[in-house]
Amino acid sequence: MRLPTRHLLSAAVASTLLTGCFSGTSAEGDGDGSRIRLAMMQPPRSGLSPLSDDAFKLSRWSTAETLVKLDEDGDARPALATKWRQSGRTWTFDIRGGVTFHDGTKLDAEAVVRSLTRAATASPKPRILDGVDLRAAEAHGDTVTVTTADEDPLVPQRLSSPQLSILAAKAYRGKTVNPVGAGTGPFELVSVDGTSAATLDRYDAYWGGRAKSPGIDVRFVPDGTARAAALRSGEADIVEAVPVSQAALLDQDLITEVPMPRTNTLYLNTAKGPFKDASLRAAAREAVDAESIVNGVYEGRADVAEGLLGPALPWAAGLRRPVTRTKATRPSGETITIGTFTDRTELPEVAAALQQQLQKAGFKVKLEVREYANIESDALAGAFDAFILSRATVLDSGDPAAYLYSDFASDGSFNISQLADPAVDRALKKAGATGTGTARRKAVVAAEAAVLTTDAAVPMLHERVIQGDAAGVTGAAHDPRERELVTADTYVK
């Protein structure tokens, strides 16, 4: 097969980009295999604080754990809590016995309340608690009560979010939360080298049984070509988020393609600039040719979006109904600035394709592309007319209502579109208050429709993650929710 020129050019510079990412070889341990060399896409944004999106790194490394975990269907299952029960606005959780933190201290009700209280009173709050007034208290013995201002059927699912990980008291001694040596998982985080690397060792006293690997050596490699090269050269054992452009260069037996609840969306600024005008937002929507982006940028390894919720949530398509939108106005040369980031290799290419499509429609388009850590604050502050984001839609609670609230509620913490629409707020609150099951799913789809009616967001495509596992890797997780990667059962032969 003849490869496109851009693939060959990327491969040619890979060795240069890879320099310094990994050094030496995987050291043998005293377990079933070698230490796991892991190439991660995004460096820490907040010093690995669990109150930020860095929490998902701690979860993927199996170092920090939560009271509850989710099964494949998104239902709550025991983790650090063994069971729970609801009484109105209050849920009572029984805390697992025989669990110790990595510093040797005991997991108890006091530790759980400390962690949950720190998260609930943080500013800003963890995304999973958007719109939720949550209070934790010791009950009796090893039980904890969690009470919300309004009756919340999703409390167990919320407590599965890695942003609500339970850490030892030592983690909370400073102004920021420091997870080093403070988790309960099979691997102990022993050191962090800024945004370059992290080291984890097996925690032999883990309550769930001894891990099969002696440890994990993490390198943060934002450049996708370098990550793929690390797998190809044997310098990494597990590589997350292999770029589509690199997939054809790899041994197909080493990559796994996983449909994800992740949507590539064009967020439009509804508060100021040209897209304050709903008819111009409609014009932008009509100008977007998502199919050409899927075929040209993602080489067919993605699905054209019909809504914000994709094929990873198959029930959404069956409940979705046509949406009534504002009629488009022909643009007359309005200048717009689109922001996006380099951490996901395809996004700059998506931005370039959108620039051409929107210019053809009559807009003048400028692009601003940076690393995510350097652009997130500007995006959240509404500094751009539009922003391209690859967004996980069930990242936190396993339920899309939390994502929809975070991104589109008037007081949502991730409201890049600056949307403040009473009808959307009502639909989002109804979805959040509806009990689990079919009724909740219908309310979620109705909330999605309310958002789409505003054209505050133009869903373009649903991604599939490509993960690379070296031939000797056994038991690596392929998790659509991006919560697991290396588990206690993962090792390198």
UniProtKB/TrEMBL annotation:
<feature type="domain" description="Solute-binding protein family 5">
    <location>
        <begin position="77"/>
        <end position="413"/>
    </location>
</feature>
<dbReference type="Pfam" id="PF00496">
    <property type="entry name" value="SBP_bac_5"/>
</dbReference>
<dbReference type="InterPro" id="IPR000914">
    <property type="entry name" value="SBP_5_dom"/>
</dbReference>
<protein>
    <submittedName>
        <fullName>ABC transporter substrate-binding protein</fullName>
    </submittedName>
</protein>
<dbReference type="InterPro" id="IPR039424">
    <property type="entry name" value="SBP_5"/>
</dbReference>
<dbReference type="InterPro" id="IPR030678">
    <property type="entry name" value="Peptide/Ni-bd"/>
</dbReference>
